[in-house]
Amino acid sequence: MPLVTSTEMFKKAYDGGYAIGAFNVNNMEIVQGITEACREEKAPVILQVSKGARAYANHTYLVKLVEAAVAECPEIPIVLHLDHGPDFETCKSCIDGGFTSVMIDASSKPFAENIEITRKVVEYAHDHGVVVEAELGTLAGIEDDVKVAAHAASYTRPEEVEEFVSKTGCDSLAIAIGTSHGAYKFTAEQCTRNEKGILVPPPLRFDVLEEVSKRLPGFPIVLHGSSSVPQNYVKMINENGGKMPDAVGIPEEQLRHAAELSVCKINIDSDLRLAMTGTIRAFFNEHPDKFDPREYLKPARANIKELVRHKLVDVLGCAGKA
Ligand code: G3H
Ligand code: 13P
Ligand code: ZN
């Protein structure tokens, strides 16, 4: 089937108590690892491209890689989505250039300005059969070239969501309930330590999510910054010349719970990066004489595939839903 929008996917996910995985893609191996897992697990999927990915790999290469995945996986629905569109022009360029979904992220702007920019993108997108994700609230962490310190992050205010959605006409809403971008989601001061000395992050604000859902019944909610930062890959990186102390993510059982509620899309990028980097670091340590990129990218792609399979089956609950 051709690329689809997320409309049908989100409706089924909402009713079925699961979420669709939205994985960031930057090169061929990442696209292949994700979509091979989704094809084998019969899972619908959102492949998302950031401004940074477009700057790195070029819009056309990324669209063509995704089109190749669509041709290789005709039995699963695939959405091509712009992640964190910074302005109208970038959204327009992706809408005109084959994407089926865009995010306009004006969450750092004042409320009225966020509404105005989002509504402009929605009008253009809907005229072209494309759906729009918007954001209210600010996540901590790094996204593209924007770094938001923990103290500057702010939870979504539930009392604003109805006005925002009705005035903008957006199709889904990303909210801030305590997730955060990147591999260092929380400072040590924000966490407690368990008996093994491992950092335990503060729990997500399910009260905020529930209040938002009450005000927007049936409306798909999105969680960004939802990598779990698998400790096996952090360890693999650190044991093979890397230095990532105290990298900590969102516990998977909390994401599973969010997926059972109104969260229909869960964004995962950093976990893929950790799997790829850990695998390549270990490979080079074991094989200092090797220099063929195919030899180290092959196990990296295989580990991305297994990581995505785990997310589909154990975290998102979307395996078998294609
Ligand atoms: O939220 C941002 C995504 O993880 C994309 O990151 O801008 O480095 O491509 P990037
Ligand atoms: P992570 O950094 O937690 O993977 O979040 C990715 C994301 O939200 C992309 O928009
Ligand atoms: Zn994000």
Helix content class:
40-55%
Structural class estimated from helices and strands: alpha/beta
Task: Please list the strands of the largest sheet in the order they lie side by side.
Answer: 1-2-3-4-5-8-11-12
Task: Please state the average pLDDT score.
Answer: 96
Q: How big is the Rg? A: 19 Å
Features:
322 residues, alpha/beta, eight-stranded parallel barrel, 46% helix, binds glyceraldehyde-3-phosphate, binds 1,3-dihydroxyacetonephosphate, glycolysis, Fructose-bisphosphate aldolase, FBA_II, Class_II_FBP_aldolase
Q: How would you describe the overall organization of this protein?
A:
Helix content is 46%, strand content 16%. The chain has helices at residues 7-16, 28-41, 51-57, 59-72, 88-96, 111-127, 161-168, 206-215, 231-239, 252-260, 270-286, 293-316, and strands spanning 20-24, 45-50, 78-85, 101-104, 131-136, 141-143, 146-148, 172-175, 192-193, 199-200, 221-223, 263-268. The model has no long low-confidence stretch (mean pLDDT 96). The protein has 322 residues and is α/β, with parallel strands linked by helices. The chain is globular and about 60 Å long. The chain has an 8-stranded parallel β-barrel with strand order 1-2-3-4-5-8-11-12, surrounded by 10 helices. A two-stranded antiparallel sheet has the order 6-7. It has 12 helices and 12 strands. Helix 3 (51-57) packs across helix 4 (59-72). Bound molecules: glyceraldehyde-3-phosphate (G3H), 1,3-dihydroxyacetonephosphate and zinc ion (ZN).
